[in-house]
Hints:
alpha+beta; Spore Coat Polysaccharide Biosynthesis Protein SpsA, Chain A; seven-stranded antiparallel beta sheet; globular; Glyco_trans_2-like; Glycosyltransferase; Nucleotide-diphossugar_trans; TarS/TarP_linker
Amino acid sequence: MMADVSVVVAVYNTMPYLKRCLASLARQTIGLDRMQVVLVNDGSTDGSGDRLDRIARRHPGTFEVIHQANSGGPAAPSNRGLERARGRYVFFVGADDYLEPDALATAVAMADAHASDVVAIRMAGENGRFVHQGIFARTAVDIDLATSALAWSLSNVKLFRRALIERHAIRYPEELSVSSDQPFTLAALTHARRVSVAADKIYYHVVRRGDASNITYSAHPEERLRCTEAIMACAERLLPAGPARDAVHRRQLTWEAAKLLEPGLLALERDDQEWICAGVGRLAKLYLTDGIGGKLDQRRRLRLSLARAGALDALLATLAVDVRDGPPVVVSDGRAYAAYPCFRDATLGLPDSWFDVTDHAAGLVARGLTVDSVDLTARGGQWAVTVTAGVAPGATLPLGATRVDVAAGEVSVPLTADAGAPLGARLPVTALVEACPPGGVRHPLTLRLAGLGEQRDAPIRIPGPRLGRTVYRQLGRGVYRATFKTNREGDVALDLRPVTWAHVTGWLSRRLRLKARPR
């Protein structure tokens, strides 16, 4: 009997993380009778192979193990597992990672309901592992590379229709030691009739090992560059010129090539610096078009452009400035420019557009501010979000701006200072409550910059746990819970939730259960 889904797991020295991975597969609600799990041991030396054999004995007919000599990367074991797969769909799982119990059932049900060839399920990172969340903003039946953030999610953690994979003979390029899943996924996405995404909850946890020994983190720059070149060449072959191909190239330049031009380059030997600059410059010459460059942030655009020009010394000087406090900003003819040492250097003749930060001026204003506190306070019976801030040493404020506001949604107030006092703003909560939907709302707090021709927003960011506590207050006609939240970057948001009788009774019930629990 054909399984609904074949799960392929490439395994190399992943203990103890492998235990949780295998347990999560055994607990899938789709049922062991509808699954085939192919575990490929790629020459592990840490006992992973024994662990695989034990679970295969425990669940015969579902789990099967292939043992092979180490191949040097995940591509070969993934291909061996794919050759053994017999399910209608195939799903690849990282041996460090784990799934929620309903992950496979949800993916298969969505593929069946909508005739989807590829289904992405919402992922989240653990232990500092970054997972781009663009395509997980909402559940969608049909997405594509050109009009969504799919190009930023080219990992193989997706459900693939196996007939599609076999019809087009899609396999992992075994010559790539890292990122071999991206050409595989890109080929599948290109040939798929429909790509869907299930984003209603987190289904898959991507785990960064405590010693950061995942191959994603440990690859040498030479390997990363070679793999990036291969992926971009693959996009050239598979995709016609246009928005979809540009989206893939932009992702590779932003996330892979530009990573090689970060401040760590300063610590390398000169020969290595020259080799990396030349390699990235080669990619930039081929793929950094004006259209793609215009969508990059100024730092990446400048670094890639300097590499393309072969201006290594200027690139190193630019990185050195970024390691310190960043470049000063000058305003000229209504535009703002990052005044790096190579800005308007006659010997280099670099265009001003490489230094233009006008579209990011709000972020630069935010960099020039140190937000000291965010709290909810009352004055004369009126509640407000209170923000206090100071100007960072050496910062120029407001950087050509005619006005800087603190904003939450459509509500904003000016950031001002009384004589001898820090910058501050009081954002009235009444207006936010009036616009609050029945289920509540989370308002990101932003600095809103007016000037230099238009209006721009930048997040209010505060380091460390310096936020006010959760409060319950009568606001307008109801009682609301107000909580300040921060994400991993320190961006602050105000979470407003109406308090209903269901909330109150639920809270009381939990309190009573806790008190009744034996000690």
